[in-house]
Structure formats: C-alpha cells, structure tokens
Design goal:
24% helix, 6-stranded mixed β-sheet, alpha+beta, 6 strands, YaeB-like fold, 3 helices
Length: 113
C-alpha cells in the first residue's frame, strides 16, 4: 500500500462543474504519484510543493480531463508567469469508502496548451 500525503481541501461547489458526485473535500497524493511526477517532469516537482495546494484552492480554470472522474486544474502563477496543470482524480460514490481525491499528475504547460 502506498503512503499518502495530505495536500489540502477542495471546494466541492467549484469542482462540481466536472463531477457533481464528489464525496470528500480532502486531496492527497501518494508516493507512487510523486515518483511519477519526479520521473516524467523532474523540474516540476518543486513547483507542485510550492503551488499544488494553492492550485486546488484557488484555480484559474477547471475542465473535465480525459480520464474517468478526473479534473484538469489550470493556474498561472506569478513566479515567472509559469502556467501549471494538475490532474486530479475525484472520489465519487462508485469508489471504495477509503478512497480520496488524489493528484494524478502535475506539470508546467506552454501557452499554446
């Protein structure tokens, strides 16, 4: 079983535009997903630590991701005008009771994305 790390809470009202059936406010990330981010986007992990909580709580845009029950959260941060993308898997009634909203991926994006 992967170790989980608490990241923060989300406002279900905001995230309901993607999924109306969100069952919890808690957002976590697992060691497995941290390893994924460090492997695929090594320069972006420190940005996740610095801005992940703020992205979830104070996002600029949210759209439905191409994964089931998932949201793509977008935010432009003031530090160098970076644009960040976070993929968040949302917990629904179809999930096990101990499941939580979970960060799947995180990375910087280009303007045209």
């Amino acid at each position: 079983m992967a170790t989980i790390h608490y990241v923060g809470t989300l406002d279900r009202t905001i995230y309901s535009v993607v999924m109306a059936d969100i069952q919890t406010d808690s957002v976590i990330i697992t060691d497995t997903q941290i390893a994924h981010i460090k492997e695929r986007h090594p320069d972006d992990y420190l940005l996740l630590l610095a801005y992940g909580h703020d992205m979830i709580a104070s996002l600029d845009y949210i759209v439905e991701a191409n994964l089931p029950y998932s949201a793509m959260v977008l935010k432009e941060v003031e530090f160098g005008g970076k644009k960040l993308k976070l993929i968040l898997r949302l917990k629904t009634t179809a999930d096990p009771a101990d499941f939580q909203n979970s960060i799947i991926s995180f990375q910087r994006i280009r303007d045209k994305e």
